[in-house]
Amino acid sequence: MPRLLLRLWDRWFGGPLRKVEAEALADRLSDAGRRPDIRTIAVLLTAAVCLTFQNYASHPDKLAPLAGAIAGLVSGPVAEADVRETLREWTVNQGPQLTWFALSAILSYTVFPIAVIKRVFRGRLTDFGLGVRGVAADWPVYLGFAAVIAPLVWLFSAEERFQQVYPFYRVHSPAEVDAAFVRWEVVYALQFVALEFFFRGFLVHGTKHRFGVYAVFVMVIPYCMIHFHKPLPECCGSILAGVALGLVSLATRSVWPGAALHISVAWGMDLACLYRRGMIG
Predict the structure, then answer these.
(1) CA dist., res. 105 & res. 44, Å (int)
(2) Domain of 146?
(3) Is position 2 within any domain?
(4) Could you tell me if 58 and 105 are in contact, meaning their C-beta atoms sit under 8 angstroms apart?
(5) Which of 24, 230, 251, 253 could potentially form a cystine with 16 if both were Cys, beta carbons 3.0 to 4.6 Å apart?
(6) Tens of pLDDT, residue by residue, the chain (281 residues)
(7) Residues pairing with 130 in the sheet
(8) Is position 1 within any domain?
(9) 56 lies in a domain?
């Protein structure tokens, strides 16, 4: 069994990761590698800007003062009051609030990085993890991850800390698990695609030429930090999950497996929490 596991590791991870390290070493030893690395600087600074934007634009009320002030300058005090009131209403109404949160994440995690990739690097999005070639061949790896994660999702869904957080779209009766809830779950999933592209695509594949495999561990730091408002077990788990999904992205050169796993976990947690509260099933 140990030999089989070692062979499987080498097949799915060891070989591809050694290739990443060899390519990074060759790049660092090249003439270009001895000069200031503008690409790594651009990726990391763009990431800092994106995370700052996401933090301060993730809820309507956070932008109410700025948006109101701009409306006041353009159209006067009545417009300023209207804008502030509208954003306050969106903040207390979970539908608009959650949609705003998801769309701000999609914007910050995709639009800015894609602009840098296309306009600054003149690169291809497939080189930053959006390729799908050969991804399906590694299905046993994804199945193994799912087999480990699914029992943990079910176990933690019973804890009060997780019941208080999930699902983000709060329902108080089975009748509220309706079309609006389903629409939110779809937007929720799209947000995870954007998140995977940003962390496991833009950050990892954008710096692997300099850091090699260690690009995964650079990425895990901000990834862990965006979980600081979540329950402690989830925040701690994000470190392990971030490393695992980062290695998968490096080995497969794609973020799609990680996105599928992430969405499965998110949907699974929401459904498990609802089931334990008697809202479905």
Answers:
(1) 18
(2) 7-276
(3) no
(4) yes
(5) 251
(6) 567 657 766 667 788 889 999 999 999 999 888 899 999 999 999 999 999 999 988 888 887 777 777 888 888 887 778 877 887 877 778 888 999 899 999 999 999 999 999 999 999 999 999 998 877 777 777 788 888 889 999 999 999 999 999 999 999 999 999 999 999 999 999 999 999 999 999 999 999 999 999 999 999 999 999 999 889 999 999 999 999 999 999 999 999 999 999 999 999 999 999 999 999 97
(7) 254
(8) no
(9) yes
